[in-house]
Design brief:
It is a single chain. With about 300 residues, the chain is mainly β. The protein contains five helices and 18 strands. The strands form three sheets. Strands 4, 5, 7, 12, 13, 14, 16, 17 and 18 form a nine-stranded mixed sheet that branches. The chain has a seven-stranded antiparallel sheet with strand order 3-6-15-8-9-10-11, with no helix packed on it. A two-stranded parallel sheet has the order 1-2.
């Protein structure tokens, strides 16, 4: 209270989801006459956070939702039933995919990170790609995940130009699977888990390279159906990125015994550490969320 009381003008408080106790203090500060300061509050809008702010600052608060960055729809991705909500239906014959230009949130450099997505694959022709931020063959770029010989494969390109160990887990056709890929820089491991099962893990010593290659979902990063995996055929739902390695308990929560969690609403924001997201909207329906989970 003492720190905030003496401030004047416009005061910006970021990541408010980590300090919900400040709402009661802000109520007192907002009732001062004359008002020496206004507070701009930024943070992830979980349902619990919105409830707390509305109750604590009733009549004193204006909420301004900020839109995310849309993923680009390439070759007319359509809407279908997802695992948690609606999903993005990708047709390999049409080379349909989603993409987003390189930015600090999807680029990893030397940091730990986790990528999770629900996948319903209907065809394995040509080793379909789940996601890639790497050029064909992995010559430049950061990370990629694709199907080959009945397995999902995940690896990244090291800062020294060499590739990390390739970790893999078995896949299934015509069934929903939660694929979680992560790099733990503290442990020096690259990892993959499917449907909360056994973790495939490999060790590495080099850092992760940082590149300007775009992130492609459902196709290889040259935007073609060839090279590092062909175009994906099937449905994807609820894609998330966290800038840290999720814990075993958090991965279990994502799976939720096979029914899945809606990432933007089903977790306490402080626990999952969500800081922003991109949403792809097709035919006025939310079909896929790409979260950047900070950390």
């Amino acid at each position: 209270f003492t720190t905030l009381e003496g401030l004047r003008g416009t005061v910006v408080i970021d990541e408010i989801q980590h300090r919900p106790d400040l709402f009661s203090i802000l109520r007192v500060l907002a009732d001062r006459k004359p008002l020496p300061a206004r507070f701009l509050i930024l943070g992830s809008a979980s349902p619990e956070l919105l409830r707390q702010s509305s109750e604590s600052l009733a009549g004193r608060l204006e909420t301004v939702p900020v839109a995310g960055l849309d993923l680009t729809d390439n070759n007319t991705v359509t809407v279908g039933a997802g695992r948690v909500d609606s999903g993005a239906v990708l047709v390999r014959a049409n080379s349909e995919y989603l993409s987003i230009a390189d930015n600090d949130d999807v680029g990893q450099n030397a940091n730990s990170f986790t990528i999770a997505l629900w996948v319903y694959m209907t065809d394995t022709t040509g080793n379909p790609s789940l996601f890639t931020k790497s050029t064909v063959g992995g010559a430049t770029g950061e990370y990629f995940c694709y199907n080959e010989a009945g397995q999902y494969n995940f690896a990244f390109r090291g800062a020294d130009g060499t590739g990390s160990p390739n970790v893999s887990r078995a896949n299934s056709l015509n069934a929903w699977q939660l694929v979680i890929c992560w790099v733990d820089s503290a442990a020096g491991t690259v990892n993959m888990q499917v449907n909360n099962g056994t973790v495939a893990s490999g060790s590495y010593t080099q850092g992760i390279t940082n590149s300007s290659v775009a992130l492609f979902i459902g196709i290889s990063s040259d935007g073609s159906a060839n090279g590092l995996g062909s175009a994906f055929s099937g449905t994807m739902d609820e894609i998330c990125i966290w800038k840290r390695a999720l814990t075993a308990a958090e991965r279990t929560d994502l799976y939720r015994t096979g029914s899945g969690n809606r990432f933007q609403t089903d977790f306490a924001s402080a626990r999952m550490d969500q800081t922003g997201f991109w949403r792809k909207t097709l035919v006025n329906q939310e079909v896929l969320d790409l979260w950047n989970g900070g950390g």
